[in-house]
Records
---
Amino acid sequence: MKEAGQSFSVSRLIEEVSRLSGGRLASEAKAGAGSCGVEGFAPLEEAQPRHIAFVAGPKALKAAAASKAGVLVLREEEARAGGEAFAARPLVLTANPYAWFAWASQAMEGGILPPPEAGIRPGAFVDPSAQVDPSARVEAGAVVEAGAKIGPRAWIGAGAYVGEKAEIGESARLYPRALVGSRCRIGARTILNMGCAIGGDGFGFAPFGGEWVKIPQVGAVTVGCDVEIGANTTIDRGALDDTVIGDGTKIDNQVQIGHNCRIGRHCVICGCVGIAGSTTVGDHCVLGGAAMINGHISIPAGSMVGPATPVMSWGEKPEVMTGIFPSQPHKDWERTAVMIRRLPQMRQSLKTLARDVEQLKSGQAR
Amino acid sequence: MKEAGQSFSVSRLIEEVSRLSGGRLASEAKAGAGSCGVEGFAPLEEAQPRHIAFVAGPKALKAAAASKAGVLVLREEEARAGGEAFAARPLVLTANPYAWFAWASQAMEGGILPPPEAGIRPGAFVDPSAQVDPSARVEAGAVVEAGAKIGPRAWIGAGAYVGEKAEIGESARLYPRALVGSRCRIGARTILNMGCAIGGDGFGFAPFGGEWVKIPQVGAVTVGCDVEIGANTTIDRGALDDTVIGDGTKIDNQVQIGHNCRIGRHCVICGCVGIAGSTTVGDHCVLGGAAMINGHISIPAGSMVGPATPVMSWGEKPEVMTGIFPSQPHKDWERTAVMIRRLPQMRQSLKTLARDVEQLKSGQAR
Amino acid sequence: MKEAGQSFSVSRLIEEVSRLSGGRLASEAKAGAGSCGVEGFAPLEEAQPRHIAFVAGPKALKAAAASKAGVLVLREEEARAGGEAFAARPLVLTANPYAWFAWASQAMEGGILPPPEAGIRPGAFVDPSAQVDPSARVEAGAVVEAGAKIGPRAWIGAGAYVGEKAEIGESARLYPRALVGSRCRIGARTILNMGCAIGGDGFGFAPFGGEWVKIPQVGAVTVGCDVEIGANTTIDRGALDDTVIGDGTKIDNQVQIGHNCRIGRHCVICGCVGIAGSTTVGDHCVLGGAAMINGHISIPAGSMVGPATPVMSWGEKPEVMTGIFPSQPHKDWERTAVMIRRLPQMRQSLKTLARDVEQLKSGQAR
């Protein structure tokens, strides 16, 4: 956990949230909140007077009333609903307390990606033909190959790798051991977490006489701006064209994205998801953890896939799709598993019975 | 995507495919194709006159007829079936257009693994007792430990790791940050993609008084020739004996193979597959993406496992096994999930009804 | 596989097992076993006279009787049950042969984590403000950042990374390319396998106007003592508080643990498991391979989750939970999958039939 320390003025945070959100999220200090100073955010239950805490919604109002937080961030209607409990407390009122928290936290951290101290550290290996912006930073053990370009204020972490002719955008950040293969392009402000591998060879082989002939993967990977890619996630380069990740999409750890996939903008892809090759995912889709997506399919914009759900095909419309086997105590599951294998039999018995019952009915009717 | 540029003669490609396939795949130029020059492959729909495109099968004939590709690669019977549309076009005829494409692509890339410029680059750390063939290349940040052997024309990528007494075969390639633990052996022409880890400790612990006692893993990993291992894939070393991967087997990204597994030759293991320890997979098996294979079982040669399929046991015969929960719109799934838990009850109701119906029938008969 | 070589005295092994188990596991030599020398362990079937082999339980007695092993390790009651076959053989008797094997193997390897040759190797990058104990070792290509602390006899492998103010405990081992982010703490004797990433950013974003606002992750990861973490496993840092892994817990390869999880002590988490954020797992739980655990839930101490089982919620009590779709030959599965989607319909037919049968019964009764 972070050490306590520096104090932040709440009125300064209000200004910064407005600035960071491009003026889209307004907020207002009440009951003296503007003149308060805070050291950081904390959950409602753990917050002390030196903390600021946000109220996630009506369900959190009781915890909010009991919280020791110095300042609370909540919606006006919730402050009103709380009545007495919030009348004299230092408050920040805003339409979206959770987003407010996100931006205010960024402000406290000095920006989501504070510009690094510029320079190439000893122990970094930069090919003479690479172009590293003078405001960028390259850490020890990092390797930047021939013809690569590193943009302004980009940060290439310890042991990270930027392949031949790869391009890293302005203010992008590669955490330690992040890997970007040759000719791949990473957009501005994009974050590659530790150990992710962008631009490995796509998995393409032609069968021939019982063996597999490798198809060279000559495409690359194009990652948009403001993307985040999780630790040890892998995104393969395309066979002929590029694999593409759209602007603003957030990808968690241990995700695998196959060659020639096209992922839209502002998607959320949770941990352990696998997407086989040549699949298209539209804008604003959310894929739950460990969802498994077949290759060569198209998921329309705005769709959601539940966690641990296998998706083999998709219709035309956006949907919320789920396919989780309901887990049970092991003994119950043993019975269930047997039943599942007998379902066709059960169906048959049901049909036979229905026919018998029809005959019985007509027998009685006679 | 790759830049356009260099032109390749189609008759040269025909020669190269014959050579690379060991003469097993013949091809023939028609309607002037032999004298054409092409810059590269492209999908039928995107191809321009400077491209060559292959026709994957009868279903692609319509797209092929409409394609602007300068040269088409297809089967003789398909060219005939297409009639008019292909009569005067530059064609390459071959029994297996997909494999032709694979080998011709390799030829265009200068071979699947063109021999690297020899030498140990500045910033590589090679123990004095390691044997590095003079024709091999070791990149910056790579570490080669004591007693390791690097074969002719092998390429040890930036930041890759070759442990004590490990052996890397002729023309093998370790992409950046690929890891090969001590005493592991990698065969000739095998490709280890970025960030894969061969030879981590197997997961072996003896329970004792509520705690877990580590069993040292003193085996290693033996990887055959012409194998490909995907980015961030992990293969553990054996407890006593070695974990073994057979010749020609292709393994995708994010795969986990437990200690003491024995994987056969020419298998395909798709992304996100997990194989628990001590399992044997026969030759020519295909495991679909995210399949989950239990430990201590044996899958016969020639078997297939569907994507996202859990395999807990296997009989004697090769099979195509599937176990995917069919995903549905969330509301439908909620109903289905309830039903699955009630299956034993349903079965019971069915039996009761059947008995009642029998009684009713004998009642009417009376 | 390990080369043969050094011989170990069985009486010395008996002493060492007693010492390593803290005197909790006694063992006794019979029929001259104490004066035997052995070169290593081998499975019963492969063992030669120079090997020692353990008998896992009554089922292994037949193989044990036929084994060529020079010395057998087994329980007294099993030796007795075996009768003749074991009467004159050199034996080690102990209450827990498997744990005996684990500790004796450790003794043969010179301890589970033999203290490394101290020193910072050429090619390691250690910030001048980092504190590296003089008995620790830092390998080539490793990076230790400002303010980090490396404890006595700790071993920082080739290309491993220790972030700013991170702390590595006494005798801990980081295998090559293991990554420990800033401010994370790793306990004594804990093993981080190749390529694991501890302390990547948690996956936290606030939705705002169709986009996702990053929530800075200011917590860290606290890993206890005697923990083992597998190759390419990822454990994210907490949003506000730390993610916590309890003492003695063993985690396999390719596991993903989300931010703010609290994993108890002496758990076993098998390969490919995913645990979403803010979930609590009690002490002594076992999670089978590829189990997928939802976020914000609590799994009581002593619970077990089957392999490939999705867990969306949990009651109050410890349970053995399973949720595996039973796999079948593909054609059978196709029928089953159709049935599963029709379950609500089947249920309805069953109800209709039951009502009809009731009516028929009352009709006959009349």
Note: The helical segments of chain A are 10-20, 61-66, 76-82, 84-87, 97-108, 330-365.
---
Amino acid sequence: MPLSSLLPFYSHPLWADLALDVDPAETGPLILAAVLLSLVVIYLASKVGGEICLRINFPAVLGELVGGVIVGISVLHLLVFSEGGAVEPSLISTLLQQTAGMEPDLTALISQTSSEVISVMSEIGVIILLFEIGLESDLPGLLQAGLQAAVVAIVGVAVPFIAGTIGLIYFFHIDTIPAIFAGAALTATSIGITAKVLAEMQRLSSPEGQIIIGAAVLDDILGIIVLAVVASLAKTGTVEISNVVYLIISSIVFLVGSVVLGRLLSPYFLGLVDRLGTRGSLLIPSLIFAFALGYVAVALQLEAILGAFTAGLVLGETDRRRELEEQVVPIADMLVPIFFVCVGAKTDISVLNPLVPENRPGLIIASFLIVVGILGKVVTGLTVFGRPGINRLAIGVGMVPRGEVGLIFAAVGTASGVLSKSLDAAIIAMVIITTFVAPPLLRIVFKPAAVTIPALATEEGLAIASEARESES
Amino acid sequence: MPLSSLLPFYSHPLWADLALDVDPAETGPLILAAVLLSLVVIYLASKVGGEICLRINFPAVLGELVGGVIVGISVLHLLVFSEGGAVEPSLISTLLQQTAGMEPDLTALISQTSSEVISVMSEIGVIILLFEIGLESDLPGLLQAGLQAAVVAIVGVAVPFIAGTIGLIYFFHIDTIPAIFAGAALTATSIGITAKVLAEMQRLSSPEGQIIIGAAVLDDILGIIVLAVVASLAKTGTVEISNVVYLIISSIVFLVGSVVLGRLLSPYFLGLVDRLGTRGSLLIPSLIFAFALGYVAVALQLEAILGAFTAGLVLGETDRRRELEEQVVPIADMLVPIFFVCVGAKTDISVLNPLVPENRPGLIIASFLIVVGILGKVVTGLTVFGRPGINRLAIGVGMVPRGEVGLIFAAVGTASGVLSKSLDAAIIAMVIITTFVAPPLLRIVFKPAAVTIPALATEEGLAIASEARESES
């Protein structure tokens, strides 16, 4: 079939300004086809990976990450994302080229556009995940754990940063600015991975879970500030104090402001929801709230997931919480796997191959960063005070995974020319190991408590605990 | 804040090949912000429009379409899609430019990418809608109505096509090829709008609903074939018979094959689903099935929504139907409004303004096309045989809305240079009027029956009817 016979049943806004001679009526169905095929691949990877992990008693999310690695840049090249650089088209677009008779020129275009769409969908996935986590979290419990979470977050940023930077300078004779950058890459916990593992183990509302989630949220903000500082240091050699002050103030105003305002306004919000008669009368206003706060967070140079989490927290305090949770579950089931599979797919594990001689210097530095990265977070559990019987090890381990956030540090460092190739590879290796090791570790360290409160480990247990919490409040 | 201080917490595959000097780490959060803001606008438009329509006793989907018109290209310019041509950036990206300190150069880029993402999400929305409609449809009932639906579909394509073409040639002295093209644009019913209105009135499983849905699905396929014929006629002056034969065979093979194979394989599918233990164990395999069939449909040069509808039909025959329906509802609530608001937003109603002198020739032709477009479909109800007491008028009116499909005809015709400006405007006007008039008309013509079976008009009624149907089978 010639390309001209492809039937343009959907038009697309596309590339018109970019002086590319492409008819959007021709690319439209192809982009949709590429996105559909990508979603099929993502879901297959997430389910095969998740189910295998479940059977060998690992967290399902680890399986989704590994499934992503297998379909992604490292192995099968089915899902390929060009992170700043040009990359060969994914296998999916090559398949499209064959099944739909697409011209090779179009392949790169379709591949880029569809991977862009999948990227945004994966971000909406993690936004929905954090919204769900916020809904399931317990605001009073979180506030009660607030001071301890703050200490955990600050220690968990400071220890790996200082130990990493000094170690790189003294043991590896790395220059100060690259060492500071690599040290900074050790700081930010991936809230998504930790929260997902906790949710899978039904430990979100345990005291440990509350401290971990609170600390991970604060850690996320600290990570943003640290990145702003080191990025400006790398670019200009100085630190823009005004920018740091701006970030600190805006994050405090945002978090406190949205919770306080949200709690004040939620009765009016529910009153409005009660008067709506069309489909999605609770869901759509809640999504408007979550997406709007996500947008405000991005506009303040924070992260969208912080806004979604805060929106979930506020709506979780209302009496429509249970109903909203039930409606968010299928949406999360549909969108969240896209995020985890994409994180895996974007991870290039070839830097871990010791058989490649160029990898070896990076791997030696990586071993150091991994030790600092894990120990520097595990010690944070020791800072928790006044909570006899709490699982300190679990809190520390919960802060270990670096996930996508660490990869961004590496990408920014490499883009600004601060990081050498081996240091860049070492950071990526550290991110891979901490991300993939944390979920099973977390399951191991939480085991003893699971034996003492076995009911909590089942779905019924969660329902009972959740009801108990509701009747308390 | 300078652009350089924007914090790149998510990287994006983007534009790398296109010789644009854009750092994806800088555009990433902005694209996400633009998508989030667009979603907030879409949801606000859908809820405000839907609720107003509900209160004045119009179908909610009409409100979503009108809400889309108001936020779209016609009025507020908040959501702008560049359908093949360059368009000024949307107000959303201008707002982003101001709130996030974005450089003007980036605005066009962000605007295009985010509108592309929204476009694909809206298509996934209509895919989910048709999947849901398929789930709620009754395959035996649909097969029983098959012959009548086929007659309705064929008459509903032939009458407007012949009457439109001949009328344009004789009354308006338009050349043969443009007249054939405009006549062809009168043929394709928008299955999405009709199905949504029927679902809102809980009439999907009524005898009329079954015939309408069956006819709309066949009509969709006939529309694809007609478009292939006229597009090749417009381009080369001849008809590629081989292509027409290919389309007819592939659509028959696809529809029959996927239903037969699906019914054969569904026990194994359910057996597999029962063995899964991770979250979304029913939903994700079902989505894999729907998206994979959607992909196959696109690869066969059909439409993705046909694949999703067939997948829904097959899964609707299984005993997990009710459970799956419950999980699909919130997903449809989230994604379907994006489709209808986008259809409205893409519609430029300025061609309807009679105060603009250039519009007048088009409006006169449009009046003719509208009359032919409505009457040519309404008469199809008269062809229904052997069904005493059936609401023939409702069936005819159900086939009236042209929606997005008609707009594609206009876009293809204009792109290939066949349609004059006034004929193009006339087609767009015909699409607008048939789309916006059909939902309230459908509600009016269905009224009498609603009085005789009042229980069906309530949600409980649907549940009762649905249960009755289940116990029958």
Note: Chain B touches chain A through 109 residues (CB under 8 Å).
